[in-house]
Amino acid sequence: KSQLIRSFEHFYPGCVAFKVGAGPYLAAGLPDLFVAIPADVPRQAQQLWIEVKMHPKKLSPRQETMIRRLRAAGAKVWVLTWRDRVLRSDDERVALDFIRLVAKVE
Known about the structure:
The protein has a 5-stranded mixed sheet. The model has no long low-confidence stretch (mean pLDDT 81). It is globular. The chain is 30% helix and 26% strand. By secondary structure, the protein is an alpha+beta fold.
């Protein structure tokens, strides 16, 4: 499992986290991961989409469109970038605490 999925499972017991695959029946541009956090966890997005990029790669036009559509529909979407062995977010206010936790899980 990816480090991000293990981190969610470690810090949010009971969550459902999985990699979203690609295929002919899935919408183009979906983020890499989907996470559902149990409703009893305070102050957390209950459903979260995560797109992970390795620097210097950028979002494709299809990914940008899908992320914009998901956010417009009220979904929480994080775009995380690995750069110099550090995970960075497009929304530091939302993701910073989780990114710090990820660094502690091996």
